[in-house]
Amino acid sequence: QVQLVESGGGLVHAWCSLRLSCAASGLTFTRYRMGWFRQAPGKEREFIAHINRNGDSTYYADSVEGRFTISIDNAKNTETLQMNSLKPEDAAVYYCAGAVVLTKAPRLYQYWGQGTQVTVSS
Fold this sequence. Notes:
Layout: E1 3-7, E2 10-13, E3 18-25, E4 33-39, E5 46-51, E6 58-60, E7 68-73, E8 78-83, E9 92-99, E10 111-112, E11 116-121
Parallel strand pairs: 2-11
Antiparallel strand pairs: 1-3, 3-8, 4-5, 4-9, 5-6, 7-8, 9-10, 9-11
């Protein structure tokens, strides 16, 4: 059974940092491209970033470029999202996801975590 479990969410002040982690089990981690998405109340799920299997190619949404960093550790089957200079508009439930292709489209991701809440106070 495939499981993706996020952790690290919480409440922070604006311009502070958070580090989200995603632990994967039940899948061959190196066969998947990993991504992060977020969803705020009343909004569609939004692509944040993805990373290739080797971890040497990343892509970010414009809204987080330069502030967020995605990384993977294939030995530990984990994915992380380092979030710096957080803004109130970054508040959302954050999801990690796995896909067989490198894509920004949520519908092409086969596996999803349960999400972790990030709240940013101004």
